[in-house]
Amino acid sequence: MTLAWKHPARVAALDAALARRILILDGAMGTMIQREGLEEADYRGKRFAQGYDALFAPTGHLHGPGCGCEGSDQRGNNDLLSLTRPALISGIHRQYLDAGADLVETNTFNSTSISLADYRLQHLVRELNRESARLARAECDAVEALNPARPRFVVGVLGPTSRTASLSPDVNRPGFRAVSFDDLAAAYRESARGLIEGGADILMVETVFDTLNAKAALFAIGDVFEESGGRLPVIVSGTITDASGRTLSGQTAEAFWYSLRHFPLLAIGLNCALGAHELRQHIAVLAQVADAPVSCHPNAGLPNAFGGYDETPESMAEQLREFAQSGLLNIVGGCCGTTPEHIHAIADAVAGLPPRVLPQLEDAA
Question: How many angstroms separate the CA atoms of 139 and 166, rounded?
C-alpha cells in the first residue's frame, strides 16, 4: 500500500503550481558564501572556536587543552554555517526568494556522516539537516505570507557524498569499494530524518554521479518514510560529468532515468558540471523518455582557468528560455556560479511559457 502524504495540502499546492507554470529553483549556495570571504574563525563561531564542539562530548568527558578532541579546520565547511552563521544562510535564502525562486534548497549538500567525517563532525548530521531545513522553512513561510497565492517550497538536499559505490578509487584494485550500499543507506537515513524534522516539503537527491549511490539514497528515503508513517515528494538530479554525455559511473541520461523510474519521483533532472549549452542535448533526452516532470539547474557555464564561471545572467537566461520554448522544462534554476541575479533573469525569461507536457508512454511491462 502506498503511504499517504505527510503534508497533503502542500503536495496539492505543489502539483497545482507545476501544472500551471515552470517552477523556479534557487541558485548556488556555495557561490554566495564565497562572496563573503569568510575565514576559519567565521566558520567555527563560538561553539567550535576551540577546535571541538563545545556542546558535545562523550559521557563523562570534559573538554580542555590536550583532550584529543581537536577537530579539523572548518574553513570551506559551508554546511556548518547553518549553526555558526544562521543569519548569513537565511539571508541567502531570502535573496533567492526575492529573485523569484519557488523552490529553495537547504544548506545540506555535505550533511551526511560520510562527508562530514572529513571535518570530524559526524555527530552533527541530524542537527545540521534539521536546523538547515528550519532556516529555509522560516524564509519560505515569511515570503509566502506576503503572497499566499504563491506558495514557496523547501527542498531538502541530499548530496552525493565523497564516495562512489560503483567504482574503485584504487586503479590497482578494481574490485575495491571505499563505501558499501548499506553504509550509504545508513548515512542517508540519518540525513533524511533531520530534513523531515526541520520541515522540508521535498527531498532532492542531487548531483548524482553514481546511480548506485542514488539507489541507496532512495532506499533510505523509503525506509524513513515508512518509519515516519508518511512520505514527501522526491526529486533526483544527476550530473553529466564531461563531453561523453555520461555520469561518472557510465550512464547516459536515458539509462539514468530507466535505472530510477521504479521509485515514484516528483521530477527527474540534471545539474552541475556543465553549462546550459552543453547540458541541452541531455535534457532533451530526459524530456523525451521520462513520464515525470523534468528539472534542470546547470552551472553558469563551464569553469574558467581560475575556477570561476563566466556565464552572465542574461546569456544563461536566454539559453534556458530556449529550453522552455522547446517544451523541455518543468523546473529550472542554477547550480555552481549562479547568483540571485541569474535566478531573477531566468525567472523573467521563462515567465508565461508553458511547462513541459508529460509524454504518455507505453508501460514496458
Answer: 38
